[in-house]
């Protein structure tokens, strides 16, 4: 039981690890013993400092995940530089807002490229590496409540996150028999930069809080805890799950 959640000796690649949910996941995995490669387009200095504080090892990998070839090159380069990767966390994500009738192709493509296309090709690169060395591994994709629900003015985001949920299930079916766990976390309303404007709008904030059974916004560390669970031996028979971590929002 004591080592059920111990990730010592495992190496994780976390996208969008400089801030918000990605940073919390990186730090949580590090606290559980994993080495963490913090990947994204901005400096990882803050996350690396937090990892160091936690006594964990971290590395920076700079890449723009809007370009799937650049994403895969960064992933392969990180594995070459730091050693084989056992845990892939696809967290980097963006949102663009407009009415569906006004939605532009540029906003559609940008969101799809970051939230779905790079996610698939990173999963592919990860699985190819695992299969070539006959190793086991874990993919954790970050989905959303909008993987299950409609929403308004976020057409490409909703489509991309529904796609992430579907892709998670498909890859789980293809790879479960090969020792690769593929699962997703669907965060509810989590207090990060991404949701700052919502929280600043008093009326919206009150409306949201009234509908969350837990009665509070989620913290990024709530998602970090779920990621440690999914990366651990405790989750070894979980394949293709899209787990809401939302204070009960979807249960309502
Ligand atoms: P943030 O906006 O705080 O973080 C998003 C992360 O993605 C940042 O690290 C950002 O880097 C990175 N990123 C965006 N575009 C790119 C790119 N082209 N290349 C590399 N990195 C990129 O948001 P959250 O932490 O809130 O969100 C993290 C994930 O959780 C996202 O997938 C989001 O959709 C999902 N989510 C969040 C919810 C919430 O309530 N917060 C709810 C449901 C899902 P940079 O800082 O450089 O822009």
Automatic annotation (TrEMBL):
Keyword Oxidoreductase annotated: yes
GO MF: 2-deoxy-D-gluconate 3-dehydrogenase activity; NAD binding
Ranges for domain Ketoreductase: 10-188
Keyword Secreted: no
InterPro entries: 2-deoxy-D-gluc_3_DH (IPR011286), KR_dom (IPR057326), NAD(P)-bd_dom_sf (IPR036291), Sc_DH/Rdtase_CS (IPR020904), SDR_fam (IPR002347)
Alphabetical UniProt keywords: Oxidoreductase
Family note: Belongs to the short-chain dehydrogenases/reductases (SDR) family.
Protein name in the entry: 2-deoxy-D-gluconate 3-dehydrogenase
Species classification: Bacteria, Pseudomonadati, Pseudomonadota, Alphaproteobacteria, Hyphomicrobiales
Name of the gene: kduD
């Amino acid at each position: 039981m004591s080592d059920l959640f111990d990730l010592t000796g495992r190496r994780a690649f976390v996208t969008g690890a400089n801030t918000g949910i990605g940073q919390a996941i990186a730090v949580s995995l590090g606290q559980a013993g994993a080495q963490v490669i913090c990947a994204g387009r901005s400096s990882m200095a803050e996350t690396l400092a937090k990892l160091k504080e936690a006594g964990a090892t971290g590395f920076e990998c700079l890449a723009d995940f809007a370009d799937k070839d650049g994403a895969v090159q960064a992933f392969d380069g990180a594995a070459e530089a730091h050693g084989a990767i056992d845990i892939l966390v696809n967290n980097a994500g963006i949102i663009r807002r407009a009415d569906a009738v006004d939605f532009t192709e540029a906003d559609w493509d940008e969101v799809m490229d970051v939230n779905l296309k790079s996610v698939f090709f990173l999963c592919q690169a990860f699985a190819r590496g695992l299969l070539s060395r006959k190793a086991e591994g874990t993919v954790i994709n970050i989905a959303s409540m909008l993987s299950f629900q409609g929403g308004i003015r976020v057409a490409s985001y909703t489509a991309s996150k529904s796609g992430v949920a579907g892709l998670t299930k498909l890859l789980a079916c293809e790879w479960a028999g090969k020792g690769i766990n593929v699962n997703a976390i669907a965060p509810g309303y989590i207090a990060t930069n991404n949701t700052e404007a919502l929280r600043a709008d008093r009326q919206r904030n009150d409306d949201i809080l009234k509908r969350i059974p837990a009665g509070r916004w989620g913290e990024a560390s709530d998602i970090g805890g779920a990621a440690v669970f999914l990366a651990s031996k405790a989750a070894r028979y979980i394949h293709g799950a899209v787990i809401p971590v939302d204070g009960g929002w979807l249960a309502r």
